[in-house]
Amino acid sequence: MIPRVPQNKRLLVGVATAVTFILLYLISAQSGSPKVVYVDKATGTVVSDFKEALVGGSTLVGAPSAPASQPQPPHDEPPIKDSSQEENAALQQIGAKEEVGKQPGDCLIPGERVKATFVSLARNEELYELIKAIRNVEDRFNRKFRYDWVFLNDKPFTQEFKDLTSAIVSGKAMYGEIPKEHWSYPDWIDKDKAAKSRADMKAAGIIYGDSESYRHMCRFESGFFWRHPLLDEYDWYWRVEPGIQVHCDLNYDLFKYMEDNDKVYGFTISIYEFDKTIPTLWKHTKDFIKLHPEYLAKDNFMGFISNDKGETYNLCHFWSNFEVASLKFWRSQAYRDYFEYLDQTGGFFYERWGDAPVHSIAAALFLPKDKIHYFHDVGYNHGVYTQCPLNAEFRYEHRCDCNPNSDFTFRGYSCGKKYYEAMNLEKPKEWVDYQ
Ligand code: GDP
Ligand code: MN
């Protein structure tokens, strides 16, 4: 709104301005200097330097303009430069292929992309929890990189699911149905034995103890998601589950970080497994290693998963609802053989083996430990557990929205301390205040 100025004051200022003009005209005529002079339109004072006058937004005397006493709101002035055009031109110069701004406010970080995709296994009923998670990952990371997103389901996705998710994903969104063979009982499973085990586990109060679908899900995430044809064209994936949150800005390409630094498996939270879900997993793992000692990596991460050099499993594992990892690792002969060996024992159905301990044990044994990367900078939440960076400056710079008191890394059932010890790393200095 233009400020209102009282009538008599306007008259006074008008007269003052006219007098100034007449004086200026007389002075310039006398001295022989150019007849064009500049006056600051807001204050009515003479501007001696033409260039400065331009930058300062002063107007040429005589040009149509508002009275000096009525400053205009800034949006009435022509823009000095169009910065959106400049940003586009700059990005083209440094080789960014796409145009800036698919959505208002989006800002592409230029640079090479690696062959990577997000992957979400989900049910149609989880749509609204999932799109919250996707929106969050897009805001914190992917709107700047635009990686693709693969959605997998044991049932056909609804149109609503496809419409809403593809509207939010900034890269390509793809939808795959899981082949029956990857989500059903293999022929060597005794279904009665499996049903009895589910009943027993339910009676024992074990979480998901009586769930058949949970077992198919864990077996699928262990042995099959990476075989889905939609993932064939990729080397890397980032697993995202419904309802998860990313708490801090991620301003670099996590996939490219993995590739450039020769990493294979990246995690955020680590935790102890419920031993009742995996009574024989370690025994079978040891048998497998006896059969295939060649798969055990030199400098492996046994120190993280065992406190007695491999005699027993200490239950530590990477929480697999977040993974940024190499698909090539799961496609390797070592992992294929390990999964097949485990699958033949029937433990996914007679017990309730999770994909998290299976992935973690494989990564810890078949990889040199320096191929495992801890994303301590990824603020993350799934269910009751949170990772929140402890350094206050970091949280400020990355606009984190988590409370450091909720950080799980050095508390209770977390394997965070074990990780730092086994990796021979110094814990962050703040850890003592958050245990
Ligand atoms: P939790 O994290 O161990 O409690 O297990 P979740 O219930 O979160 O399941 C893990 C992942 O598998 C999530 O991405 C789920 O959306 C997905 N999931 C679990 N069960 C099913 C299922 O029966 N069908 C499909 N399509 N996805 C499932
Ligand atoms: Mn989950």
From TrEMBL:
Zinc found in the keyword field: no
Membrane topology recorded in Swiss-Prot or TrEMBL: Single-pass type II membrane protein
Signal peptide extent: none
Region entry Disordered, spans: 61-86
Entry annotated with the keyword Plastid: no
Active site per UniProt: 323 (nucleophile)
Skewed-composition ranges (Basic and acidic residues): 74-84
Organism taxonomic ancestry: Eukaryota, Fungi, Dikarya, Ascomycota, Saccharomycotina
One biological process term in Gene Ontology: protein O-linked glycosylation
InterPro entries documented for this protein: Glyco_trans_15, Nucleotide-diphossugar_trans
Source organism of this protein record: Candidozyma auris
Record's protein name: Glycolipid 2-alpha-mannosyltransferase 2
